[in-house]
Specification:
alpha/beta, 3-stranded parallel sheet, TIM Barrel, globular, binds fe (ii) ion, 9 helices
């Protein structure tokens, strides 16, 4: 990790815009915690729900919320960009994704639904639309869905299509969840770690702690690969060195 700049590509730090920081004081404390975790680049990704907001209104609110924190970001030496965590929604069939991308990049942070617990088959059509538009979907916190976290075949399927997978820093330091996260990292099925920070008490930024744990468990190359990928998203570079994971043998056929 020595030469890598720490980048957080997923967080809810902007004030009063979603279920993350509720006011500029909490946002300021979260920004400070990001800086203390050695994060130098942050993509702000407030929730976007297509069924109850218009892209124009969302962007206006996001810009206003950012304006309130810009000075603090500058003072802390943080480079910033605006993105969105786009909830998978049937309304997305009719939407222009341009202003929802992560910065001006080709990447779009996509959050799958978790209420039903079952994989929404129509979601793949949305993924195909994004890919056809030249966008790369980054699946947010795959560690939070049994239908991804527990199903490598499904992850391989979307990896081969060109999707990327993010896990939350919390899961990398959780005694219960980290063994599975590390297994997926070894398989090449995790590309980015994000903080998904929402507040200072229950969901703060644990990025550095997570990267230290990963480095200890899987070695510096894995930690560097993950940080490099977050930097690539921030600067709209292609992600290098994607492992082409070998599928597990199914009935001995391949
Ligand atoms: Fe999030």
């Amino acid at each position: 990790m020595k030469n890598n700049i720490m980048t957080d590509i997923h967080c809810h730090i902007l004030p009063g815009i979603d279920d993350g920081a509720q006011n500029p004081d909490i946002s300021g404390a979260l920004l400070l915690s990001e800086q203390q975790q050695e994060v130098r680049q942050i993509l702000f990704t407030p929730h976007f729900y297509a069924h109850d907001m218009k892209v124009e209104d969302y962007c206006r609110n996001r810009a206003a919320a950012f304006e309130r924190m810009k000075e603090t970001c500058d003072r802390l030496g943080l480079e910033t960009a605006l993105g969105a965590e786009v909830r998978m929604d049937e309304e997305l069939f009719d939407i222009d994704f341009t202003d929802l991308r992560m910065g001006d990049s080709r990447y779009l942070l996509l959050e799958w639904p978790f209420l039903s617990g079952t994989f929404p088959l129509w979601g793949e059509e949305i993924v195909d639309i994004l890919l056809r538009q030249g966008l790369t979907p980054v699946f947010a916190h795959i560690d939070r869905y049994d239908y991804f976290f527990g199903d490598e075949e499904r992850l391989y399927h979307f990896l081969e299509k060109g999707c990327l997978f993010q896990v939350n820093a919390d899961s990398c330091i959780s005694r219960r969840r980290s063994p599975r996260v590390f297994e997926l990292m070894k398989e090449g099925l995790v590309h980015i770690v994000g903080s998904d920070a929402h507040n200072t008490d229950k969901r703060p930024c644990h990025l550095k702690s997570a990267m230290e744990g990963i480095e200890k468990k899987l070695g510096p190359n894995t930690a560097e690969f993950l940080m490099e990928n977050a930097d690539a998203v921030f600067h709209d570079r292609e992600i290098d060195g994607l492992k082409k994971p070998r599928r597990k043998k199914l009935f001995g056929i391949f």
